[in-house]
From TrEMBL, chain A:
Sequence intervals crossing the membrane: 30-50, 62-83, 109-128
UniProt-listed PANTHER family: SUCCINATE DEHYDROGENASE CYTOCHROME B560 SUBUNIT, SUCCINATE DEHYDROGENASE CYTOCHROME B560 SUBUNIT, MITOCHONDRIAL
Residues bound to heme: H82
Species this protein is from: Azospirillum baldaniorum
Superkingdom of origin: Bacteria
Name of the gene encoding the protein in the UniProt record: sdhC
UniProt GO BP: tricarboxylic acid cycle
Subcellular location: Membrane
Phylogenetic classification of the source organism: Bacteria, Pseudomonadati, Pseudomonadota, Alphaproteobacteria, Rhodospirillales
Protein name: Succinate dehydrogenase cytochrome b556 subunit
Function recorded in the entry: Membrane-anchoring subunit of succinate dehydrogenase (SDH).
TrEMBL record, chain B:
Keyword Transport part of the UniProt annotation: yes
Gene Ontology biological process terms, A to Z: tricarboxylic acid cycle
Described function: Membrane-anchoring subunit of succinate dehydrogenase (SDH).
Pathway(s) the chain acts in: Carbohydrate metabolism; tricarboxylic acid cycle
UniProt protein name: Succinate dehydrogenase hydrophobic membrane anchor subunit
Organism lineage: Bacteria, Pseudomonadati, Pseudomonadota, Alphaproteobacteria, Rhodospirillales
Provenance organism: Azospirillum brasilense
InterPro entries the record matches: SQR/QFR_C/D, Succ_DH_anchor, SuccDH_FuR_B_TM-su
A GO molecular-function annotation: heme binding
Superkingdom in the source lineage: Bacteria
Pfam families: Sdh_cyt
Amino acid sequence: MANGSGRPLSPHLQVYKLPRTALLSITHRITGVGLAVGTLLLTWWLVAAATSPAAYERAQHFIGSFFGLLLMFGWSLALYYHLCNGIRHLVWDAGKAFELSEADRGNQIVIGAAAVLTVLTWIIGLAVW
Amino acid sequence: MASNSKTLRSPLQIARGLGSAKHGTEHWWHQRVTAIALVPLTIWFVFGVIRHLGADHAAFVAWLQSPFSALMMVLTAVVTFHHAQAGLQVVIEDYVHNEMAKILSILAVKALCFVLGAACVIAVLKISFGA
């Protein structure tokens, strides 16, 4: 970036093209918040099952509705992404794979694994439904 | 302290290694420990959910009445909410800069996580011990 002085500018988020590692990093946080919201459905599901068959039916009916399935798809993708990228963060925490080439490969592995696991889950899920 | 030292921190502060916030790496470490625990728990949970898609109430209750399933579901709930409140706290600390709003929202998130986690545990125990 040119600012006349030839010195580097610090990145400004509105004009700065995020590198893929940065995009994956903020996605990890967004999916984490999304999954935290998803615990509301988990709680509803368990509490409904503990309350009565009728309450459980209402929860199952919501989950099976179009909107429910849409939420479930989003949450399954978020869960797998957060899981895969979380494992990658644990690798980083162990002090490994910090080279740019390794980070790029990690990006591809995380995106690929999250996508494959999500599709696989839905194929199996819809088959056994 | 030796006269050639450039630090203003006392030897005791350095030895304790808890930094200015007085908590050291405890919060960070808890996030990592719960993350590691959640790897097997999440895999169990996903398989459990897939196996009980569209299950009726009797089948679902029968699943959670098995001691192993009840154990795993309680662990999943407790560790998930512990991990969630730790993560959400960091998100709030990063983006909410008004001190009062920050503290109140962190307290609210933690309270909600405790309530939801307890509700999940009680629900599983009720199913597990109930008829």
